[in-house]
Design brief:
Strands 14-15-16-13-12-18-19 form a 7-stranded mixed β-sheet, with helices on both faces. Helix 11 packs across helix 12. It has 17 helices and 22 strands. By secondary structure, the protein is α/β, with parallel strands linked by helices. The longest helix is centred in the N-terminal third of the chain and has 18 residues. The radius of gyration is 24 Å and the shape is globular.
């Protein structure tokens, strides 16, 4: 390291990451894990194999965690103002290299370049908030809490934390956790999705250049065994997860059984309510964007629209017209609205779900299977179902693809009831021009993020990312003050200074 904390090693062109083996980053060094193959990374737009994600063995995981624990002992004593200086540099580097990282992200994931750049911008917002750690970490003080007694609450770091992050937002979701963990004085080990490792490698290239001390931030690759190794490791004090509900439950139960703090974000089946008092053109535009952006592969998508019966037909026509006009293609090409799904397996799963919707009696108003952009990639255009009932598979199960289901409702109360029947509670939205309807939805919708005339209810980084029911397992959420509380414990000091006469 140089005297200013930046790496003396010649900066690697991030585009060149595709030309080198996928490796772990531990103790300031890039090393290939010693296990077998977890996944072949494929460009879903072209079918080109980009590289092989290796498996980190038990010894690889142990080495990363042990070194992180050693680094923690010094890092926790580093003044918070010094701890955030590498984060400031990291933020600057992210902004400088945003285009390169976005293109890497598109290559391995498939989303459009605009979506990738927007994702990174939301991640950068979390780095910005974490840079406010000197304020976020302030405790409380009360003089004369009792006769002759003052009390002070002080936050302190806990040790080594890990995060297991998904394929659909490989640039943003690690930044829900890592910046806050290290700003609070902890060490951090990331295990990204084996499907999208290159974005994580790019982030760690920049973390290295930002000048974090060796061992404070680590990257390990692998599959389920690597995850379980982290969750069971004695020196890991807490775990964060984002992914499907089934795996979220496993992470929650396993981490909690091993005495760790845990926050596990699960799946979703979000509903948007369209009132007869809504601006239908605006509602249709935002609903199409929410349902089909990122090829429907996001936990804040609204894949179910519950529409007032009086405006159902008009809204359905508007949605179908807008959905049919979406351009499907390679996410790196100009003018593309929707990229491919992440894999052929994902494409086949969505195609099967569409067939199930037809078999269950829904009306297929727009069939995305008929509009493939290419025979080579994992492409599906938007599909829209009408006359869906609340119990149908396409209305209840998370499909994670470009499929929108339209349900009729006689009034707002029925629409809210339909939305609340879902076992998930990640997000919900309502479109209305009536304040009383908006207020009713604010109070009655059972979701952690609620949008009012907002298609995708994504909170800014200085608010926590909500989630309820089967969409979240734990107590403290990602982002902002919630995650600061997750990454710290609080000690209360009770002080009395007798005057010698007692």
């Amino acid at each position: 390291m140089s005297v200013d904390g930046t790496s003396e090693r010649e900066a690697t062109d991030l585009y060149d990451l595709l030309d080198r083996p996928i490796a772990n980053y531990v103790d300031g060094e890039w090393t290939r894990p010693s296990g077998g193959l977890a996944e072949t990374v494929v460009d879903p737009a072209t079918g080109e194999a980009l590289g092989d994600t290796p498996i980190s063995t038990e010894s690889d995981v142990d080495a990363a965690v042990k070194r992180a624990g050693e680094a923690f002992e010094e890092w926790r004593q580093t003044p918070v103002e010094e701890r955030i200086q590498p984060l400031f540099r990291f933020k600057s580097l992210l902004e400088e290299h945003q285009t390169e990282i976005a293109e890497l992200l598109v290559r391995e994931h498939g989303k459009t370049k605009g979506e990738a750049e927007g994702e990174l911008r939301r991640g950068i917002e979390n780095v910005e908030v974490a840079c406010g750690a000197p304020t976020l970490l302030q405790g409380g003080h009360l003089q004369h809490a009792a006769p002759g007694i003052d009390e002070t609450a002080v936050r302190h770091p806990l040790g080594v934390f890990t995060a297991i992050t998904p394929f659909n937002f490989p640039g943003m979701i690690p930044l829900w956790f890592l910046p806050y963990a290290v700003a609070c004085g902890n060490a951090f080990v990331l295990k990204p999705s084996e499907r999208t490792p290159y974005t994580a490698i790019a982030l760690f290239e920049l973390l290295e250049r930002a000048g974090f001390p060796d061992g404070v931030v680590s990257l390990v690759h692998g599959g389920p065994d690597t995850v379980n190794g982290l969750l069971a490791h004695d020196d890991v004090v807490g775990a964060s997860f984002v992914g499907s509900t089934g795996v979220a439950k496993h992470v929650y139960e396993t981490a909690a059984a091993n005495g760790k703090r845990v926050q596990a974000q699960g799946g979703a089946k979000n509903h948007v309510i369209v009132s007869d008092a809504a601006d239908l053109s605006y509602a249709a535009k935002k609903t199409v964007s929410s349902a089909f952006a990122n090829t429907g592969q996001r936990c804040l998508a609204n894949p179910v629209a519950v529409v007032h019966d009086d405006v159902y037909d008009e809204f359905a026509e508007l949605v179908v017209d807008r959905a049919a006009a979406q351009t499907v293609g390679n996410g790196l090409d100009e003018g593309v609205d929707i990229g491919p799904g992440v894999s052929n397996e994902a494409k086949a799963r969505i195609e099967s779900a569409i067939e199930t919707g037809v078999e269950e009696g829904a009306e297929l108003l727009l069939d995305g299977r008929e509009q493939a952009a290419s025979d080579e990639g994992c492409f599906l255009a938007p599909s829209v179902f009408g006359e869906v009932t609340p119990e149908m598979t396409i209305a209840t199960e998370e499909l994670f693809g470009p499929v929108l289901a339209l349900i009729r409702a006689g009034d707002l109360d029925e629409a809210i009831d339909i939305a609340n029947r879902s076992r998930y509670g990640n997000a919900a939205s309502v479109f209305t021009n009536r304040g009383d309807e908006a207020a009713t939805c604010r109070h009655e919708l059972e979701a952690g993020n609620v949008g009012i005339n907002v298609g995708t209810a994504a909170p800014m980084a200085f608010f926590h990312f909500g989630g309820q029911k089967d969409s979240f397992f734990g107590d403290l959420h990602a982002q902002a003050e919630d995650v600061v509380r997750f990454y710290t414990d609080e000690t209360v000091y009770i002080e009395r200074w007798p005057d010698g006469e007692e």
